[in-house]
Amino acid sequence: MKVPTRLATLFVSALSQSMPVDLMQKVARTVIPDYDIYERSGFPPSIPIPRVDAARQILRDFVNENFFLKLVESLLEVQQQGDMGRVIRIPLLSRIVAEIEDQGFTYSAQKGVFLEATKNGRARTMGWGTLREGRSYELALLRIDTVGNSDLVRRYPRSLIDTTYVAVRDMITRQVERREGRIWSWEGDGGLAAFYFIDKTIQATLCGMEILHELFLFNLLGTALPEPLNARLAVHAGPCKFLPSSKESAGDTIRRVELLESRYTSPNSLTVSPGVFTDLGSKLSPLFTPVSGPENSSIYRYSLEWQRR
Amino acid sequence: MRVLLFGKNRRRRPAKGKSVKGFFLETFPLEDLPAMISSLQDGTLVYLDLEGLANAQRQKVLSLIPENPELLFGVLDPTGAVTDVGALFHAGAVDYLGKKMRGSRLDVKRISQVLSFADVPEMEEDSGELVSPPQPAPAGEASADGWSRIVPGKEYEFAILFIEVDGTEDLKKKHEPENLTGAMETFRSYVERISAQHGGRTWMWSQFGGLVLFPLKNGSSAAPVCGLRLLLSRIFYDVEESVLPGYISFHMALSIGTTVYRLRDTGEIISESLNSVFHLGKKYTRSSQFFISAEAMGLVPDKLKALCVPVGSYEGRRIFRLIPPRPLLAHQHGDSRAD
Lengths: 309, 339
Prior knowledge:
The structure holds 2 protein chains of 2 kinds.
Chain A: H1 5-18, H2 21-29, H3 37-41, H4 51-64, H5 68-81, H6 93-102, E1 105-108, E2 113-116, E3 136-147, H7 149-155, H8 158-178, E4 182-186, E5 190-195, H9 200-222, E6 230-241, H10 252-264, E7 269-272, H11 274-279, H12 281-284, E8 289-292, E9 298-305
Parallel strand pairs in A: 6-7
Antiparallel strand pairs in A: 1-2, 3-5, 3-6, 4-5, 7-9, 8-9
Chain B: E1 2-7, E2 24-29, H1 33-37, E3 45-49, H2 55-62, H3 64-67, E4 72-76, H4 85-90, E5 95-97, H5 108-117, E6 155-165, H6 168-174, H7 177-197, E7 201-205, E8 209-215, H8 223-232, H9 234-240, E9 250-260, H10 272-284, E10 290-293, H11 302-305, E11 308-314, E12 317-322, E13 326-327
Parallel strand pairs in B: 1-2, 1-3, 3-4, 4-5, 9-10
Antiparallel strand pairs in B: 6-8, 6-9, 7-8, 10-12, 11-12
């Protein structure tokens, strides 16, 4: 992110007016754990660094290493929670946030992070503007695949198939982004969505359930296709490397969710791995039925069914 | 009455617990505002907290005031960012708490003063009686849902959806009155939101349910689809909005009828159609079920008719039941292994 002069001036003033150098370093270390202000600035440890010089050095380093937003997030946290019981008031912080937002970000107090601002409700990047390429994160992944694509393509005009799949993809994208997820990949008839923030496993699961419901309504009321479109969905959570520029999905968590979807999920149902199931809570978990999973494990299935009359 | 506070640093806290003098204060992050605004009941008091907003964002938020004359807007401006406060009132705002009032509370007294200023009658504590919404519906509202031609005081044909929570006596026994009132407010919000997506408006409402009106447009209405969606989305309401520990269930009845559309004193309306749909919903419809009268079956899309089965007749009319698929609880499944 580019830091304009006005924002840089505000930042240096805010930091130097609100805290001593040792606290500046402490906050900086919440983002870059081994950050050493003396080493970076060249000041000998025996000489106190003036606050303004320290603030300028921190600004330079964090902008260069693309950690500026993370540092402001840490400052917001310090202002909210204090330091070791001490109340820390950081003047100008709300103006700093406003300046950052003018750069195309929005601060989510609920999540404690800056997110990319969305345009017309559409997401711009796969990493919410906060994930860093090549790093690993704990994510919940939702894999979606429409069933029998090849059969449908053979039996119906290409234009009808294309229209139908575009409509389904739009519906799925809406549902994913409504729950702060991101579509990571899409290949014609299916794809992968990622969820990162608080309650990510529940959000991914609710999203999968809602897609099943919406697909039911779509088949009933929203498509010209003479037969219903069916889908298999699966949710699994685990560590995952963020590689937005890589076209190949990789990693154990992605492979696992693909396996659950392709081998262990019936059409028009959603399965979740045991780890996800344990997060679901007392209202969601009774809606899932245990079924056979990989390596004799139990996974859990959700589907819409007609009650016995 | 709902008092909604939207702000940048606000967390999502829908109505929970007790109302204070009939007011429910709910807070939401600002990002929820665009999606929620179209579904808010006329006369809802909406406070916009400007703290932490950049100039462009602030202007965008304030532009909502003249665009939505059917809502009541107040503005919280703790940093004194608004230079022309008078312009807010010219645009239709009903309250402003500025920098010098930082620390002042948005309390019942203040809200009562605001409502008095806006000439809105104060609400009594919910007595369980049917009450009408306190503010007139917008006349000449530009919408495709048929409401644009509805003028209060005149008679129209509507699709009328009756909806009521099941087991109200049990709920009263199990929960404290104040908790139950808060819980039922979230249920009402749920019905309002889904109904608004299908062109419906909640009209008469008691603690546990009420009527939703859908103007007929060229003889058609999305009311049956709305009922289906209310049933399908119930689990998301249970998990994400409901404050009750268990699952909620409700029954619905849909019919077509003629009534005067009035905003106040709805208890004085004499309408055979209203009586009929009340009776159908209250006396004939069973728990968790969605009944549709023969007349209203004409509104049901063909593919949806396949989900409807006749269940008998009531007051000389054939009645159908719409049976949607639903998630079954684990213990209701006959099988427990993968296909």
